[in-house]
Amino acid sequence: MTDSLSFLDQKVRSGPWLAALLLMLTVFGPISMDLYLPALPALTAELGAETSMAQLTVTACLLGLAGGQLIAGPVSDRFGRRRPLLFGVAAYVVVSALCAASPSVELLILARLVQGLAGGVGIVIAQAAGRDVYNGGQLIRFYGRLTVVGGFAAIVGPLIGGALSAVLHWRGLFLVLALIGALILGSVVFGFRETLPKVSRSSGGFEQVRHDIRVLLGDRTFVGAVLVQGFVYAALFAYLSGATYVLQGVYGLSPQQYAMAFGLNSAGFMVFGYLAGRSSEKWSIKGTLTIGLAMCAVGAAGMLLAGLTHVPLAVVMASLLVLVSGTAVTSPPSTTLALAGYPNIAGAASSFLGAARFAFGGVAAPLVGLAGALSILPLGLVMAVSVILAAVTGFAVLPRSTRRAPSSADSAEPSRERVGAPVD
Questions:
Q1: Which of 59, 109, 229, 380 can pair with 304 through a Cys bridge, CB separation 3.0 to 4.6 Å?
Q2: What is the pLDDT of residues 193-232, one digit of tens each?
Q3: What 3-state DSSP class applies to 416?
Q4: 269: nearest Cα among 339, 211, 221, 320
Q5: pLDDT exceeding 90 applies to what percent of the chain?
Q6: Domains in the chain, start-ordered, CATH in brackets?
Q7: What is the pTM of this model?
Q8: 232 CB-near residues (< 8 Å, 6+ apart)
Q9: What is the distance between the alpha carbons of residues 374 and 242, in angstroms, rounded to a whole number?
């Protein structure tokens, strides 16, 4: 009892700072991907690499971000959030410095993979620790804020990277990532208190992890929410991979104009992510998710039309904005559906959700260039197929009606069992 009261007091006292720190951890994904992209051509030339090999540094980081979450989630359910987070952020700092020192593109690809693995720890623990601390409407608002911060990082990442690449060598950009990681590490050391008490941790070793995974994969709502997010993010990563070729190569936008368009779409991601959190809390989780999927469908249809026939630039810009904003609308409700029922294995549940986003995105991103840099059709097809699969999954698997924010009492429902105890 004393341990529980002490832990509750700790959560109350660290609430505002903890929320800010968890939101900060969400920058690992976008900042690791976006900050060094402006220097990719210089990196390719200096290391004497083929363009396709240099692009593997992006793919390796994506795969690492997915794999890191799959590993860190169950580990944090077993040992708590703080120790894995400290290890992951410290490793991120070291490996970012190794990226800066890589003498060949092959070693850089390997270092980027490990960098992604380390960065994935911060992402998954941000979601899991949020589930430890919040319930009901607070939980949905927190996931809405995660979406907003992720959108903001996506805006400032390329802008900061572009500005820094004008004055820094590409190796210097990786040192900047190491510095950002060091600042976050210091914040974790001095400001992150454990959010998962010992009485709530899994204690059955590998067998318990297997049991937790069986529970999660046996839940239609959880699997449906993960698949919906995976397919929607496949469309989003197709946009991130192909939009620069479409807007600059086909429609002739300058780099500055492209940066403005990218910023507009990221702003839409932020605004609609916030509104989705409020809508899920006040109105309907499933209804908000449906609206998000409908927006994605409209945006994908516009891009598919652009691939089949010439359309004005305004149509393409509007389609991309609607698709990106729709992705943000789907994020808070699908995250809530996936995690709300699993307070005792929030790490494992978060790991599946985060891994699906990056893994599905990593598969979709290379497909947009199959017909060459000046063809919009592959981008439109990837977006359309991804959104169709997301919509079919959502309507086939997810519950028909989820009209309110889940409360802490919902965690005890029979279909989502408490799994913190060891397996017999």
A1: 380
A2: 888 888 887 776 667 777 888 888 888 889 999 999 999 9
A3: coil
A4: 320
A5: 26
A6: 2-411 (1.20.1250.20)
A7: 0.74
A8: 292, 293, 296, 326, 327, 330, 334, 386, 387, 390
A9: 10
